[in-house]
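Worked Example 4.2. Read the sequence first, then its structure tokens.
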Amino acid sequence: MEARARARQIRVSARKTRIVADLVRGQSVEKAIEILRFSNKAVARQIEKTVTSAMHNLAGQFEHPVEPSEMGIKEIFVDEGRTMYRIRPRAQGRAFRIRKRSSSITVVVEHRGEIKESK
């Protein structure tokens, strides 16, 4: 079984978000949350919330409690979101464009039973 969660319009560029997403790809949910909790990147909190949401979505499909160590991240990917354009005044009446980028995070979590972590 699997469940997914999405976070959209996160105000961090997709390029920066993918760096953190690569850290937790393929990990158990328990280990992924631990990695994200101690990461220094600002977007790690948003990814942690999305992973937690996917974990709860999966746990809701079972009649008995499921431990986070029994769940694993099957997929995690980051897409570009909407870009907001702002104008920066420059010399001699010119204007430069400022691009404020956003990203969309999708996490798919699956039930794996008891997971043996590799060291």
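Now turn to a second chain, presented in exactly the same format:
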Amino acid sequence: MSDINVKKETIKSTKWSATGQYTNTLVSFLIGVVLARILSPSDYGIVGMISIFFAIAGIITDSGFGLALIRKRDATDKDFSTVFYFNFVVSFLCYIILFLCSPLIAVFFNQPVLRGLIRISALSLVIGSLGSIQYTILAKNLNFKRPAVISIISNVLSGCIGIGYAYSGYGVWALVAQSLSKTIISVISVWFLTSWHPKLYFSFSSFRELFKVGSALLVSRILASVYSHFIPLLIGKFYAPEALGYYSKGQRISLLPNTAIYGVVGSVTMPILSKIQDDDERLINVYNKYIKVFSLVIFFVMFLLAAIAKPLVILFYSEKWLPSAAYISVFCLGYMFSHISQLNLNLLMVKGRTDLNLKIEVWKKIIWTCGLLIALPISVMAVCVMTAILVQVSLFINIYYTKKMMGLGYVEQWKIFLPYLLIAGFCNLPAFAITYLNVHYILQIFVGITLSSTLYFGFLYRRRDENLVDLINLTPLKKYFHLK
């Protein structure tokens, strides 16, 4: 595939990925605002206590087969049907285990409500497995239109259901109803809107072939999931549910920019990079371009969110959620580098080095465990600060292996994105300063966003930054700027 084809494929695939991602982010945000104003921080904390169990079960259900199918160029109906039945059986076994273990989990957290909560919520694992292969096929074919439509429909309908339950006084069960109904609607929709359906056969040779690719990824994803949910689990155990609610809300909000921005093109980079996996020079060139474009936007948005977190929390979630604002600011300073780490891992995976991915995760999680266990007894804020530090450690480790395999080292990569980091940090100083003035929080938000955005994008525009030019030329704004 030529460079221009890579660009066209990215733009074409991003169109519907962006439509779905931005619409869903907006819908989820608005629904989350309504629910957060009705429900209490402890309701979110209770749900956060059990998130680790569902995350691990979901990864085990997939077992890395999704990526293996995407990477396999000549995947057949035999391969898809084999993985479909495997996913269903494993998801059912995971449900049985969670059902039987729910009383023990409720005792561990001293929250009796968790027993019934787990047994109902875990149904989404089995139901979700029935539509996983259809989504994999759509991603493999770079068809992001149908997933976007399905996701929008399921988010809106399930959000209405959740809000209805919340207004009716069901408390934490409103979050369960929202999550479960979203899964049901998504699966029903993808079955009606896709032509593929499982055939009545299972191939052990196909299973073994795909498992060789997915097995190392399975272990690394389990490790990553365990450690990403490990600290919330301990916070839920040793601190009040409200503390976990504030922590979870702060983490979730700080991840929104990466989800909304990297999630748009990030979801299509793996299939596209897989198409040029045999041409290292082209692979690196495309990777460098992705890093620059993502960094241009993500660094600015993350700095801005960190700066105006306090007035934003008051505006959207009310003052009862104010303690989460400080967590948002600290998380943003760490997570702004997540897209770089993920793209480095994508390079390894498209080259088929899932073994390196596993090795990386093992080393990173050993380091993360030591750091976070040191911070946990101090305070929840100490955990946030340590997380931001450990993100940088993870970035260094990820790049180290990219350097060994493709010659793209730590210093070289910092040179790629450092200019945008420095400019974004400097231009967001006005937004940060305005929050210390004795003015209304809405005025703080409006003035902060206006000043910092004008400084940042105005500076890049005057420099005729090539990546800003590319972004503008992808939007309707191009007819007003005429940049080349």
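Notes for the reader: The chain has a mean pLDDT of 81. The CA atoms of residues 429 and 452 lie 7 Å apart.
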